Amino acid sequence: MTRLKSKLLSFNSQKAVPTKIYSPANCEELRIPFKTDKVAKVVGKLASIAPPLPRSLNPDGGESEAVDEEDKIEMISGVLIQNDFKISLMAPEDLKEYAGLTTTTILCRQHITLSAAGIDLIRWALEGTFGAIKQSNMTDSNIDGKETKTNGNATNGETADEDVSRTQTKFTVMDCVTVLVKPSGRVEVEWEGNMLNDGIADAVLAVLFTVESSPAAVKRTSHTYISPISLCPH
Hints:
The structure is a single chain. The protein is an alpha+beta fold. Among the domains are: about 20-50 and about 75-105, no CATH class; about 105-140 and about 165-220, TATA-Binding Protein (2-Layer Sandwich), CATH 3.30.310. Helices cover about 20% and strands about 20% of the residues. The chain has helices at about 1-10, 95-100, 120-130, 195-210, 215-220; strands spanning about 40, 55, 65, 80-85, 85-90, 105-115, 135-140, 165-175, 175-180, 185-190. A five-stranded antiparallel β-sheet has the order 6-10-9-8-7. The longest helix is centred in the last third of the chain and has 18 residues, at about 195-210. It is elongated and about 95 Å long.
């Protein structure tokens, strides 16, 4: 090994940058790292997206200067799967088909009761915290406004004394958390469980609990309603 080292040094003695030659001892383990480019194959839905081109080609085949600011590079996001020495980039929806992996979506629900805060106050609090929110009304088809009953059967015009509300108000916060306000102050918060949505849902629940004890909610429920009393002569 010493003679080989001296011979190699003599061959490279004329170079401007000196050559370094290592001569390890016999039976010594050598670890030589090789840096290679890793290429990922895009499959599934992501393969239908045109690949980003950082530079545009001239008609003569050469590369032009950098692209304009309007032609910005769009990043492609997905899941990177490595199987042995093969690397694939795919959308989460394609994991079962191309990688044989099963994905699970966790739907979270939280039920609370807000006896003091009304729909308008809930909307005002959510808009003040999250900005513009979407509102829609949902109708329960099983209840038709009023229930009619006479001896247990619906009849000729005798209606129940109380109206049964079948309209529910739905608020959508940041397109991921749904707040469903039901009659009698029941509120259902629903979202798809992930790291981002869980944080937004925690903020929504904090706003709802805060608005329940706010001065506006307390003032709303502090009104006293006096019902008329009929006096019967004895």
